[in-house]
């Protein structure tokens, strides 16, 4: 197993543990607001925090889907190809759930939120399409044509998934960057990612 994939699986394992209760509110949450804020500002913060949390539930479903990702069986070239296809199927399923969740989000209550979501959809859809194309090629491979290049095809989509930033561009929207502190699922995502070894 390559070091890059090992790191991804370490991060993935941590995220899966942290998100096992995705969509369920923890007993204690940080309430939005602060000194000097009007009631309207508190309402806006609360709306941004709820939207950010729903966003994090959606993208976190990718991690949940990958929690059951099968391993590649190298016992024979044929089994390696079949299990690589199954692994890509798990990746595709996780991306589909994340895309579905992002598609069901209501309009962002803060300017810039919808652009963040649109970029995530573009990124996730691109990885999903490439993973699907590789899986189709693997499924169509004749047993006599299996070689090292064929077996290595699954690495590309896996590497792409490992590089996905689940909260990409949140920092570019001040209201969303602030909302993360009041969104429990987002907190779980950020803690697990920053705590993972580099």
Structure description:
- It is a single chain.
- By secondary structure, the protein is mainly alpha-helical.
- Helix content is 66%, strand content 0%.
- It is built from eight helices and no strands.
- The chain has helices spanning 3-18, 39-66, 77-104, 113-139, 148-151, 155-163, 174-179, 184-195.
- The longest helix has 28 residues, at 39-66.
- It starts with a helix and ends with a helix.
Number of strands: 0
DSSP strand content: under 5%
- Count every helix, treating DSSP H or I runs of 4 or more residues as helices: 8
Radius of gyration: 19 Å
Termini separation: 17 Å
Q: What is the overall pLDDT average?
A: 77
Major sheet summary line: none
The proportion of residues forming helix, as a percent range, comes to 55-70%
What is the molecular shape? Answer: elongated
Q: Which structural class do the helices and strands define? A: mainly alpha
> What's the order of the H and E elements?
HHHHHHHH
Can you tell me the residue ranges where pLDDT is under 50 for at least 5 consecutive residues? 1-33, 194-198
In short:
The protein has 198 residues and is mainly alpha-helical.
Name its key features:
elongated, mainly alpha, single chain, 0% strand, 198 residues, 8 helices, disordered N terminus
């Amino acid at each position: 197993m390559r070091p890059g994939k090992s790191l991804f699986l370490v991060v993935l394992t941590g995220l899966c543990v942290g998100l096992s209760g995705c969509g369920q509110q923890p007993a204690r949450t940080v309430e939005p607001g602060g000194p000097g804020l009007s009631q309207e500002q508190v309402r806006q913060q609360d709306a941004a925090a709820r939207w950010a949390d729903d966003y994090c539930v959606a993208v976190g479903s990718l991690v949940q889907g990958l929690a059951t990702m099968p391993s590649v069986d190298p016992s024979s070239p044929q089994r390696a190809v079949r299990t690589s296809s199954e692994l890509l199927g798990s990746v595709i399923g996780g991306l589909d759930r994340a895309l579905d969740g992002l598609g069901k989000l209501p309009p962002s209550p803060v300017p810039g939120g919808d652009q963040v979501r649109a970029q995530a959809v573009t990124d996730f859809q691109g990885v999903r399409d490439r993973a699907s194309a590789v899986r189709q090629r693997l499924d169509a491979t004749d047993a006599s044509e299996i070689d090292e290049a064929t077996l290595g095809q699954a690495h590309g989509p896996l590497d792409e998934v490992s590089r996905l930033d689940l909260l990409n561009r949140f920092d570019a929207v001040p209201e969303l960057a602030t909302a993360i502190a009041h969104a429990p699922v987002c907190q779980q995502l950020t803690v697990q990612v920053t705590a993972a070894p580099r």
